[in-house]
Structures are given as structure tokens and as C-alpha cells.
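Two quick folds needed for the group meeting slides. Do the first one here.
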Amino acid sequence: MNKLSDFDYFLPADLIAQSPLNPRDQARLLHISNNGLNEHLICHLPSILREGDLLIANDTKVIPAQLHGKINDKNIGFTLHKQKSVDRWLAFAKPAKRCTIGSTAVFGDGFEARVVERYVAGEIELEFNCSDIELTRMIEIYGKMPLPPYIKRSRDGDKADFLNYQTLFAKKAGAVAAPTAGLHFTPSLRQSIIDSGSEFVTITLHVGGGTFLPVKSENLSDHKMHSEWGEITPEIAAKINETKHKNGRIICVGTTSLRIVEAVWAKFGKMQDFKGDIDLFITPGYSFNVADLLLTNFHLPKSTLLMLVSAFAGFNEIKDAYQYAIKNQYRFFSYGDACLIEKKVG
């Protein structure tokens, strides 16, 4: 059984990408196959894919979920991460100690929320003074894009991130982090992939703020995954089943797409339509039933996503690939380069 410390590695700070390449499909692509490593660009994807492949992307849309407010004239930062009802959100607060139950956070003129519950690890529940469409509008006015902490911005943010931190597939608002593998796609790349004989479908998984939380337990079985809401329609489930029946390959664009299709299979023993929460924690030793390949970025040390790709490609294979990427100056994390991983055989 792997321990948390097994997933640590040293990354020079200058390899953490602070903005995406333009155009996006010029990012580097490290192909981690069962035969070794090969270097490409994202725009070369059509030449790597096969006719009959099915790519599954996540159509979640990032909301400007970072709010700055005041409680008793003290500044508090809030990152919304899961909607509970038309006027309530779970959020991570910093500093959370100031968020006593019953206190009111003021975000702007006429826009405020009451702290109604406190949980562990800085998590609280907020009840806003508006709801539904009006709450969405106020979040869009006062919120900022919830960039991960390793992307450095001033408190005022960078307006370019409102476009840069959104994928080509984004349609359904609800995520507080981008499914970053999708950030590499351009309309022309998507069309080239379709022209090459592959197909695209989309599912939904609203990425939660829990994706930023570090794993703190050395024993991985003690870690609790935050749940995230997702949906697979009957039509998409049927398409996945049809592709597998025809021996086509399922290529998940991002760990979010992979987690929901694998979670549904784990729950029902087959691929079917689904709407609800998932909290699947994938570590080495997990048996994958749906995905054949995974397109993803390079992930943080000690993160659940690094554990997932290690389960998919093999622990030693990922360790070697990451060292290769560091040596060859690949760009890491959300705005960085990507890898195309084949599921380990045997």
C-alpha cells in the first residue's frame, strides 16, 4: 500500500505555468505509452488517435467563486465550492476563525451572507440574502475566478483569466476549478480530431474546491474525498457502451471525466445514465473499467490527482515521466503542458 510520502517530488518554481500558451494547442504533449515516452504537441493529437475513438470532455463552466468580504470590518476570503440550495453554498474561508455562526459577511452594496454552520478544515456554510438567478448575478459581479494558489495574481485578479480559465466545452455553470485538460482545445483542433474519425461527447462534473485541499494523512485510506455533483445522460452512456462494444478506445479528457465514468461503473457494474454526487478516490491498485487513455496536465506533489494517474499508468511509470518532464522543462499544473497516458497493461 502506497503512503502519502511516495507521491512527493521536487518541482522548480519556474516550471509552474502562470498563463496558458497562445494558441492553446501549441502546448507540449508527453505521450506516456506502454512502450515508453514520446514527445508531441497538443495539436498533434489527431495523428495519435484512431478512427472510432471516443473522447469524453467535461462541459462544466467555472463560476467566479472567490469572494472577498468583511466580517466585523475584518477581511475574509471565501471560495465557494458546492451549492446546497438556491441561497446556500459551502465555502472555504480564510481565516475561518472569524466566521462564527450567526456572523454576517458583507461583500458589496446590498450583497451579504450569514454564516449558518462551521465544519472542519476551514469549511463553512453561507446563507445569502438573495437566491437563484439573483445570487448568480451577484456572484458574477463581485466574484473573481478561483485560480489555484500556485497561480500568482494580485487581489484584483487578471481579467484575462475569465477567458483563459474556461474550456472550449464549458456550458453548465457550477465548477470552482477548471477541468484543465480541456483548456488545451481550440475549435480547429476539435474539428481536426473529428475529421480524423474520432468523436467527442461531453459529461458534467462540477469540480469542487476540495480539489485544492492537500492530502494530510500518510495513510491514504484515512483521506476523505469531497463529493462533487455530476451527470451522464442516457444518450452519452449508450454512446460509451457502443464504443466499447465495437472495441473503440475511450479517451477521457481530464481526470474529472475519468472519475465520473469510473464512479458510475463502480456503482452499477456497467455504464448507465447518472445524476448525483460522486466521491471516488482512486489510488494505485484500482482496476479501471471504462477509460483506455487519459489526457491530463501534470499534477501537484502529494495530490489525489497524482495518485490517480499513478494508478492509471503505473506508479514507477509516472515517477519516471515526471522526472523526464522536469528535466526537459515542461510547464506544470493548470496552465501548463499535458500528457496523454495509456492505461497500463498487465
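Then this one, please, same format:
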Amino acid sequence: MAEDGVAGLTPAAPRPAHVPQSLVYDFDMLLDPGFRRDPHDRYQQVLAQAPPIFWTPRGGGHWMLNRHDVIFDAARDWEAFSSELFPPDEVSAMLEKMVPGARMPQPIPIILDPPLHGAFRMPLNAAFSPKAMAGLTEGIRSLASQLIDHVVPNGRCEFMSEIGEPLPVQVFLKFMGLPLEHQAEYRALVRRQLSTPNGDLAQTAQFFQEMVACMRETIIDRRENPQDDLISRLWSADIDGRPLTLEDMENYCVLLFIAGLDTVMNGLGVGVRHLASDQGMQARLRADPSLIPEAVEELLRRYTFVITTRRVTKTFVFHGVELRKGDRVFLSLPAADLDPGRWPGADQVDLDRRDKAHIAFSAGPHRCVGSHLARLELRILYAELLARTPAFRLDPDRPPSLHGGSVLGLDSLDLIWDG
């Protein structure tokens, strides 16, 4: 039974008339207390306790999809499950209230549906192709080795602040063409945006405007003075034959800013946390580094860390549940990849698992365009960490600090090793 005003949780919204009580499960995707212990363990509990599709009163009230099959089907059905964050009429109404000339930047193309989505995604597909990402290999390896070698003599490190965050953030800022000296400012802005409940259009617009404001000087400069970076390459791209506008570039940069400055670091954190608690797996990978790509895929499956949002475009019955036009739906990718109905022993990390076809990067037209970069960074970081450190373990005196939200991960991860 949902309770309003429960300490530490977002307020409870009233249950809509079309939601049966049997499908209500009180779960706060942002502030559930179980996340402080382990968000993936909490999602395993949700899998065991909640229906495959349930409605929660938290976060303004919304549906959660909670099994692999329903999530996989919804991710591919873009006509019924739109990626538009807000209905166009709501956006138009808000823009009319804004200062003349002001606009709401939006993370394009992730909020677009086909066929428009494909036209805007095309330049990113080229920029993030496997061949393009391979060109970053030596730079990533060099930075990873520097960060790791800096902490090895200490016999310990706080992984997230010393390695897990600076590695992907610095790689991405350099790749994108944004100044490294603003790293802390950028990260603070992304953290604030991701730790705020979804659903508030005005607040979302403000976040996106702040992101664009801190990048606008660089965006405009690259139009006039192109360099060897992603912003410059996007300026030379086109959308169905027309050149990109400043508005297009700002939209692209909002998406890249959010995705590039948060998601991979959380993937690194949850993977290294597992390695630190599994000495047998560490030893096996040290003895046979050729298994690291297999480890990357299995750890991505076991510790999938992104929850995506959709908006229902019509009233219809989906897997036996009536959804109404305008309902918000969250696709719990972590629950999908922990579903025991899809994988035997889903809660176990098994390097020898034959089927590792996870959906950590989602499915359908919105499958993550940055997946090749993420995999590259994970493979390199694991390889360098295992090659350059003694066997590491969790510091028993400083337990990890974790968080939930739309991206699960760690705020701190203290590791120790013997000299």
C-alpha cells in the first residue's frame, strides 16, 4: 500500500482509475532505500515480488516494465511507446510562456521516433562506428595506465574519483572537443540533472538550457575553427541533405553531454566492484586476459545500469495490461537482464555462459549509439587494472556507496591491495 509523505521517498501520487490495485507496487526508482545497500539486489527483489508490469505511485506515478520479454517488446515498438520526453503540445505551451527567442534544447535523437530518428542518428552512427572508436584505443590505454600507476604504490584507492570517473569523462571531453578544465562543472550539472525525478517539463528545460550555456562558446567556435573533435565533425554533417543549424548542434550536444559524462563511469564501477569481490574471477582473467571481452559482456548483463523512459501514444492492452495514452513507462533494463525466466542463474556471473545476449544497451531503434565506445573503455580498463595491480579487494572499513535513479551506480568504491 502506497503511503504519502514517507520519509526519504518522493510523494505518492493517487492511483488512476484504469490501474487495478493488483498492479500497484510501491517502488521509488530514485530514492528506494534498498539502493543504499545494492540497487541490483533491490531490482532482484522487485523481480520476485512485483508483477511483470506494475504501476508505482512514486515519481509522479508511472508504469515499470519488469521482465525481459515485456521490456524487449516495448523497446522495439516505437509506435506505441514513444521516446518523446513530453507531448509536443505541452512543449509548445511552455515555449509560449518563455522569454521571446528562448528555446528548449532537447537531447536529439534519443527523444525522436522513426523515421525522423534515423535521419538525425546517421551522423552519430558514423562518429561512433567501431572503426572510429578503434582510433581511440591507444589514448584510452595511455590514460588508464597513468591513472592506475598513480595509485598502485598507495596500496589503496577510491576507484570512482581516482579512476572510474576521470577515465571515461576525460576521454569523452577530449573526443567531443570540450575543455578538460571544466570537468568538475560539467559533472556537477549532470549529477544534478540525473538525481532529479522525471516529469517536470520546466525543470528539465532549465537543465538543458544550462548544459547548452556551458558549451555554446565551444560549439560556435568549432563552426568557424574546426578541429579534430566530434563537435567539428558534426558541423560538417548533414540531415537529409541540409546542413546542421546551431539549434541542431545544441540538441546533439545535450544528448552527448548527458550520455558521455555519466553512463560509462557507472559501468566501470559496478564491474570493478564485482571483480574486487570475486578473487577467483580476478585470478582467471589475470591468467588468461583473452577472456576479458567475455567478462565485459557478462558483467554488463549482470549489472545492467540504465533505465529508459517511454510515453504511451495510444490506449491499448500490452501483455494483458491496459495502458492509457499519455502514461509514462520506464523500461527497467537491469531487471530485464536479471530475469531468471530469460537466463538460468541470472544472478550469477558466469564467464562460461553461452548466451550473453543482454540488453544493457537497450534494443530496437534506440539501441545505444555509444555502445562501441563503452565496450572499448571497459575492455581496456579491466585489462590495465588486472595487469598493473596486485589482487585487489573491497576495503572492509569503507563499504561502497551506491545510488539508484535512471542510471544505477556507485558514488564511492574503496579498494585495497597488498604491496
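Slide caption for protein two: Residues 201-224 form the longest helix (24 residues).
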